[in-house]
Design a protein that fits this description.
Helix 1 packs across helix 3. The longest helix is centred in the N-terminal third of the chain and has 23 residues, at 59-81. The protein has an eight-stranded mixed β-sheet with strand order 4-3-5-10-6-9-7-8. The chain is elongated. By secondary structure, the protein is α/β, with parallel strands linked by helices. 39% of the residues lie in helices and 24% in strands.
């Protein structure tokens, strides 16, 4: 069995598509297909149902995936333990982050990383969901809770504040609430409850136990834009809303605090490229800690 074929299998299993996997691996579509064929022949099993819209692991493929991930973890661990140098900081590092942190904070600052390491490719996937480091969906994940399971290493990035905000135009028209109870008379903007991926993000009830959103948006960035446009009053991240023209803080004594954590897999954290990107993110946050409230 060829390790390179196993590496291709893992990329396709995680991407769900041969084309997407080929792009991440830097191989052409036909080469990825041939590698899969070779692995299936070596194992004597069909690993994927290949369809025009993507690839789905078969029962045998799902079973082999667990073994392949153990092989990958051992390979990465052996490389790190031997101190194998990466003489040129190159390759790809994928960061999975909540959309607020990823889009509003990290994305505008990645240019400095590109200047520092010209041969490195950084992929930022800022969407409102959790990422599995164990399944290698990302090399680095920014999370809102410290992980409690898996062979993961987490470091606390920063504590951040959330507060109530409304657009000045909305508040001029509908009034500024003088108490938490008066929020019930306003249009409220919040999450789509069944799409909240972490229990710690069910924070509206900490301000108003019977919070009822009239406008529900599944992303923090979307909520910010809706509130800024006058949709109502919402709970927004201070580092996103604090400097936004036209937004006003409502009931400033009402504050919620959460934490961001930086998470890597224990077998890959010592790889130079991953460590460099993780350290870069930590440096950014440390340098602008006051922004987070």
């Amino acid at each position: 069995m060829n390790w390179d074929d196993v590496r291709v299998f893992l990329a396709v299993a995680r991407a769900g598509q041969i084309l997407a996997a080929s792009r991440r691996l830097g191989l052409n579509h036909a080469t990825v297909g041939r590698r899969l064929d070779a692995l299936e022949a070596a194992l004597g099993a069909k690993l994927f149902d290949r369809r025009p819209n993507g690839c789905e692991t078969t029962r045998e493929g799902a079973s082999f995936l667990a073994a392949a991930e153990r092989m990958e973890a051992e390979m990465l661990g052996a490389r790190a333990s031997l101190g194998q140098p990466e003489t040129q900081l190159s390759g790809t590092v994928r960061i999975g982050a909540p959309d607020g942190f990823g889009t509003a904070f990290l994305a505008p600052r990645l240019g400095a990383l590109a200047e520092r390491h010209p041969a490195l490719t950084v992929q930022l996937v800022p969407v409102p969901r959790a990422f599995s480091i164990s399944r290698r969906e990302a090399d680095i994940a920014i999370t809102v809770e410290r992980p409690s399971q898996g062979r993961l290493v987490a470091r606390r990035l920063v504590s951040y504040a959330l507060g109530l905000y409304g657009a000045g135009a909305y508040l001029d028209q509908f009034g500024r609430p003088g108490s938490v109870a008066e929020l019930r008379a306003h249009r409220l903007v919040g999450h789509v409850d069944d799409l909240v991926y972490s229990p710690s993000l069910h924070y509206a009830g900490e301000i108003l136990p019977d919070w009822q959103s009239r406008v529900e948006i599944s992303s923090a960035l979307g909520q910010l834009e809706a509130v800024a446009a006058g949709a109502g009053i919402g709970i927004l991240h201070a580092f996103m809303a604090g400097g936004r023209p036209g937004l006003e803080r409502v009931l400033p004594d009402c504050e919620i605090r959460r934490e961001y954590w930086l998470v890597t897999h224990e077998t890959s954290r010592e790889l130079t490229r991953i460590r460099a990107v993780a350290d870069f993110i930590a440096e950014l946050v440390q340098g602008e800690r006051a922004l987070f409230g």
